[in-house]
What does this fold into?
Amino acid sequence: MAKYWLLPEDIIELLPDAAKEVEALRRLTLDHFASWGYQQVLPPLAEYLDSLLAGSGADLEAQTCKITDHHSGRLMGVRADITPQIARIDAHRLPTDGESRYGYCGEVLRNRSESTEPRRNPLIVGAELFGVSEVGGDVEIIALLLDWLRRTGIDDCVLDLGHAGIFSGLVAREALDADDRALLQDIFAGKKRPDLMAWQAQSRLSDRLIEDVQALMGLYDDAQALDTLREHFAGTHPEFDRAIADLEAVQKAISAFFPEQRTSIDLGSVGSYGYHSGLVFSCFASGHYSAIARGGRYDGVGAAYGRSRPATGFSADLLTLAQLSTGHGEQPAFTEVLFPDNAETFAALAQRRAAGESIRFKHNKGA
It folds into this structure.
């Protein structure tokens, strides 16, 4: 007999204690974002596929579950990421030439788990800033992220900085075709040195590119990374110069605003889902192998919706944060009373609830 109650692989549900913790953290998070001027929006769970994936890379398309809309016959997608939806909202629903700030929280569905947690339906929370092209926008969004993590009780994390412009500069300098570009991105993302060696043996790409990639993938120390970036890449392409300037500015500002914050620089980081265009960053916390939050600049994603705007933001899985940051959803102490048998008692109990008391009914007198 089939076990119809079994959930699909890596699809999770929350029972009362965990649900209480996550909901308390969700409320704290959105209220904290609002205190920074980030307005809450609630994009839909599913959209037409061409709209949902506009401006995104092949990685996001592969993660998106597809369904057929029986009303129109068109293909729809269940969102695997919320950032492109926010770009659509900014471009079409709330168009402006000024600065716009959005906060959000919603469940997504993915074809495979992306972290060490076996979870395909994470609860994604994030913040997005539109209309600021200067590096100050990146500093603001990182400052919001760090301030929020401290507010949730996670004050011992490492901020990892990178820049998608380094990868873009290499592609442009070497004039790589689409296949080599995709392979290089995969090598960068996975730090796959054996693949790099195989690529070198099978291709006619320059030794200079191979040496540059090897150097970039092995640099994590802040001073050494920036020194190497200046020494080998400054003045050779505008993308490299932009990356150097952005990394220096952000590192200086974060060090000033958060003196105790630990940072590292990963010059092999290219961002996720193929839409990042500038500074990228991740946060790592003690006790968790993968990043607890990721973000970066994604200028131009809105062009697919008719309005190209500078944009930067971050997102995190609130379920992971709830595991690392406990104590937000303590269950209240209940007063247990028999279910009333008259309207006057029912009304009196309602008044007690309105005054802040938690009251739970019981129906069995012998319970």
